[in-house]
Amino acid sequence: MLALSETDPPRQWVVRVAGEEGIVAARQQAREVAKDLGFGLVDQSRIATAVSELTRNVVRYATGGQGDVLIRELEPSVKGIGIEVIVRDDGPGIANVEQALREGFSTGIGLGMGLPGTRRLMDEMAIDSAPGRGTTVSIRKWRR
User: Fold this and answer.
1) Do the Cβ atoms of 107 and 113 come closer than 8 Å?
2) What is d(CA 129, CA 100) in angstroms, rounded to the nearest whole number?
3) Which residues pair with 141 in a beta bridge?
4) How many whole angstroms separate alpha carbon 37 and alpha carbon 123?
5) Structural contact between residues 91 and 28, judged by C-beta atoms closer than 8 angstroms
6) 62 with 134: CB under 8 angstroms?
7) Based on the number of CB atoms within 10 Å of its own CB, is 5 exposed (0-12), middle (13-18) or buried (19 or more)?
8) Residue of higher predicted confidence among 63 and 107
9) For the chain, does the N or the C end have fewer beta carbons within 10 angstroms?
10) In this structure, what are the phi and psi dihedrals at residue 64, rounded to the nearest 5 degrees?
11) 87 closest CA partner among 35, 131, 50
């Protein structure tokens, strides 16, 4: 298990998403970081699934099906040890974030479970999006 000292800065990784290979790479990297941070198998699977859902949205909806995933360890805090994943694209943006978070709502071919499901799997989630300026989704999970 990874042990950060007081002087070690949190580590981070960037994965470029451009198709199915990017989805798999981001999912694997997030799972590996979660494992290194001491997350149990269930939480590793939750994190990997959330990353998979978000990156699949990038491939489906973003301009050129491309985006970036930043995976990083969070500074130890009162919440404990944590992982943060930030998925960003320059796609068309989400016109109504609140509506997009409703189960069953989809503007495309999906079932409308990706964003609501991701929110259930993670401890924290924030979406920054508007039409014409892309989307950034930040998710966090804390080790229990």
Assistant:
1) no
2) 11
3) 83
4) 16
5) no
6) yes
7) exposed
8) 63
9) N
10) 70, 5
11) 50
